[in-house]
Specification:
Helices cover 42% and strands 17% of the residues. It is an alpha/beta fold and 263 residues long. α5 crosses α6 and α9 packs antiparallel against α10. The chain starts with a strand and ends in a 5-residue tail after the last helix.
């Protein structure tokens, strides 16, 4: 194993790389890792900065909470230093507002790239944008004290950081609507039962569980995992026959590669 290499450390986000495993850490525990546009840009930059050798990305938050969601300063008239407030953005042209939200979403989209498997290690509060960031990952390990909640509707908003698609896929439309519309907490037992969490562990075992899962994900050949992830991630948008065809094509590529006949 090589020594831990710090690739990025800015605006509440730290990216470190150790061989095939990268760790993205939210580093503002004093504010429960509340999120801001600067943090979102740093998260997007972390995705672009990943070395090609990385196969697994672990996402974690320092302190007692994974992320308590959007920093409420976004709604203050003065906003963040050097940033327009959300209220000012709302008064601007609709196209500009749409483009700004699309830019924010980039922090949440790269976690499901086919060439990596992402794992969120979630403890304490994962609220609003924090919940959506956990949902952005392929897999989630939750501490026993986890509290997921989608609180956007209570603020008169909607979840807009890519969390609605994975939430519906994981728990179904009816439960997703109820979770979002009520803003209630989803605790560890329900998260594991409904598929929001792949695994629940005591809080003091969270980092170790994430390391163990990363090691297990690295056990199979990379190309086989990449092809399998692509098959599974596209399954819901394909018909049964289309999925059969995709399976045959993927297996053909793997067999040709194993036989040394790949293009």
């Amino acid at each position: 194993m090589t020594s831990l290499d710090s690739v990025l450390d800015k605006d509440g986000v730290r990216l470190t790389v150790d061989d095939a495993v990268a760790t993205v850490t939210l580093t503002n525990p004093a504010k429960r890792n509340a999120q801001s546009p600067a943090l979102w840009r740093a998260l997007a930059e972390a995705g672009r900065a990943l070395p090609g050798s990385v196969r697994v990305v672990v996402l974690r938050g320092e302190g007692k909470s994974f992320s308590a969601g959007l920093d409420r300063q976004a709604f203050a008239p003065e906003g963040f230093d050097g940033e327009p407030s959300f209220l000012d953005m709302a008064r601007g042209p609709e196209a500009e507002l749409d483009a700004t939200i699309a830019e924010y979403q980039e922090a949440f989209t790269w976690w499901r790239r086919n060439d990596i498997v992402s794992v969120a290690a979630v403890q304490g509060h994962a609220i609003g944008a924090g919940f959506q960031l956990a949902l952005a990952c392929d897999l989630r390990i939750a501490a026993e004290d986890v509290q997921f909640a989608m609180r956007e509707t209570s603020l008169g908003l909607v979840p807009d950081l890519t969390g609605t698609h994975p939430l519906v896929n994981l728990v179904g439309y009816s439960r997703a609507l109820e979770i979002c519309a009520t803003g209630r907490f989803v605790h560890a037992d329900e998260a594991e039962r409904t598929g929001l969490a792949n695994l629940v562990v005591p809080a003091d075992q969270l980092d170790a569980a994430a390391r163990d899962l990363a090691a297990a994900l690295l056990a199979a050949p990379r190309d086989a995992v990449v092809e399998t992830k692509a098959l599974l991630s596209g399954a819901l948008s394909r018909t049964y026959e289309e999925q059969r065809t995709a399976e045959r094509a993927a297996q053909g590529r793997r067999l040709r590669d194993l036989a040394g006949l790949a293009d």
